[in-house]
């Protein structure tokens, strides 16, 4: 039989309201009474009624999380960072995947609102966030992740400085003498891909390398097959690029396969750099030079931020936090570039 607050109050000889306050840590109840009530509740295996508690507090201690896909280590690490931070503060999460679709994201936001979540963390599928702003203005806190494009939305964001991250990777290649550097961006028009392309062009300009649009490829995703198709097209050009940067490690693996099919040696004939630092990148042969985004920290930081906003309404102005990725140089990019 399930133990209730009323049962504990009857055994301890106090009002039910006193037990409730004691278990919630109310400072109006003496420390000794709080301790004794907690010990009694533990002995009786008392479990609070989450539904009743949420109705009383008008809080569910639940966060909605919308990422672009669940089939990616990048978004998986973001979700893991969120879950760890949420559990540390007594929150649970509901995770959804938008499939990189703005309309599906809108539907999921509405469903999470109906679930009465206290806040929503989103990696936006598009640059339009009107639906999130509307929910935020109605009292459900929203924090945007992996974007710095918040404008005057009134919502906080935790992003990754992809412009700087890509800029550092391309500068690394240029410093070795590479002048024909291919760029594979991934999903055309996706917000982070636009930032990556900006970093690419900035690094070229800083290295006095003319921008060549024929060396830029976009596709319908970030997978191995996308990288393979784009690299096959780039390597068919005359003259071909001597280095290729991919805005995802999985695409970089596709580049490695395309190079293998053309009997190009890595890094002697072609230098390859990825982006993500997926666990397997270190164990490829040769090991893959890549950019570590720190996605776990992004998720953790975003979750800690939204919990502060939920628990201290009106006490914080919205913030725009930008984390900087880190270049990790490995074997795929350390050979001197071939003569042009």
How would you describe the overall organization of this protein?
With 340 residues, this protein is an alpha/beta fold. It folds into three domains: 5-48, 434 Repressor (Amino-terminal Domain), CATH 1.10.260; 60-160 and 295-324, Response regulator (Rossmann fold, 3-Layer(aba) Sandwich), CATH 3.40.50; 162-293 and 328-333, Rossmann fold (3-Layer(aba) Sandwich), CATH 3.40.50.2300. The protein is 43% helix and 16% strand. The chain is built from twelve helices and twelve strands. The strands form three sheets. A six-stranded parallel sheet has the order 2-1-3-4-5-11, sandwiched between helices. A four-stranded parallel sheet has the order 7-6-8-9, with helices on both faces. α11 links the parallel β8 and β9 (271-273). α8 (162-174) packs parallel to α9. The longest helix has 17 residues, at 295-311. The radius of gyration is 25 Å and the shape is elongated. The mean pLDDT is 87.
Could you write a compact summary of the structure shown?
This protein is of the alpha/beta class.
Structural class: alpha/beta
CATH-defined superfamily of the largest domain: Response regulator
The name of the CATH topology of the largest domain is Rossmann fold
- Strand order, largest beta sheet: 2-1-3-4-5-11
Largest sheet: 6 strands, parallel
- Extract low-pLDDT stretches: none
In angstroms, what is the radius of gyration? 25 Å
Sheet-strand content, in percent, reads 15-25%
Helix percentage: 40-55%
**CATH class descriptor name of the largest domain:** Alpha Beta
Distance between the termini: 81 Å
Order of helices and strands: HHHHEHEHEHEEHEHEHEHEEHEE
Overall strand count: 12
- Compute the number of structural domains: 3
The CATH architecture designation of the largest domain is 3-Layer(aba) Sandwich
Average pLDDT figure: 87
Task: Characterize the overall form.
Answer: elongated
Number of DSSP helices?
12
């Amino acid at each position: 039989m399930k133990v209730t607050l009323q049962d504990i109050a009857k055994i301890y000889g106090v009002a039910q309201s006193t037990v409730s306050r004691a278990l919630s840590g109310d400072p109006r109840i003496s420390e000794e009474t709080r301790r004794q009530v907690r010990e009694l509740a533990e002995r009786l295996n008392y479990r609070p009624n989450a539904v009743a508690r949420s109705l009383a507090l008008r809080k569910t201690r639940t966060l909605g999380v919308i990422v672009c896909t669940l089939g990616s280590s990048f978004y998986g690490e973001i979700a893991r960072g969120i879950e760890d931070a949420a559990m540390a503060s007594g929150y649970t999460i509901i995770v959804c995947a938008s499939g990189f679709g703005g309309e599906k994201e809108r539907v999921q936001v509405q469903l999470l609102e109906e679930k009465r979540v206290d806040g929503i963390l989103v990696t936006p599928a598009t640059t339009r966030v009107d639906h999130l702003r509307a929910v935020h203005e109605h009292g459900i806190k929203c924090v945007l992740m992996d974007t710095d494009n918040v404008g005057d939305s009134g919502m906080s964001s935790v992003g990754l400085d992809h412009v700087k991250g890509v800029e550092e990777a391309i500068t690394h290649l240029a410093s070795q003498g590479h002048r024909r550097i291919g760029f594979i961006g991934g999903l055309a028009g996706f917000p982070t891909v636009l930032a990556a392309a900006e970093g690419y062009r900035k690094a070229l300009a800083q290295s006095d390398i003319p921008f060549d649009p024929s060396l830029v490829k976009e596709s319908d995703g970030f997978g191995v097959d996308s990288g393979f198709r784009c690299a096959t097209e780039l390597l068919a050009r005359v003259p071909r690029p001597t280095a290729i940067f991919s805005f995802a490690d999985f695409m970089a693996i596709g580049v490695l396969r395309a190079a293998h099919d053309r009997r190009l040696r890595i890094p002697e004939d072609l230098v390859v750099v990825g982006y993500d630092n997926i666990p397997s990148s270190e164990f490829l042969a040769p090991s893959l030079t890549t950019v570590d985004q720190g996605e776990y920290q992004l998720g953790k930081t975003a979750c800690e931020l939204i919990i502060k906003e939920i628990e201290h309404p009106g006490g914080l102005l919205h913030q725009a936090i930008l984390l900087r990725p880190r270049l990790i140089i490995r074997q795929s990019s350390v050979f001197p570039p071939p003569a042009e």
